[in-house]
Fold:
Amino acid sequence: MTPASHLSRPHYRQFVSLVAHQHGCMLVDIDFSGGTIHLTGADEAIRSCGKELERLMGLSRQKAVAVKKSPTQ
Structure:
């Protein structure tokens, strides 16, 4: 996963964290090389967050955000 060309990795992480928070979940980690965003929270919140990230980043279904639920701590 490569952040948008106009965002640094820290800014991209902050952007994803804010979107996650707005949807009731929490960012655990971003695996930039593997292209996966790890979130914790309710299943519906995580699905909602993934859809919103795809919409905000203008991604097509072929380049969808790979969001995985992390085990609760």
Summary: The beta strands are 26-31, 36-40, 66-69. Residues 9-69 form one domain. The chain has a mean pLDDT of 80.
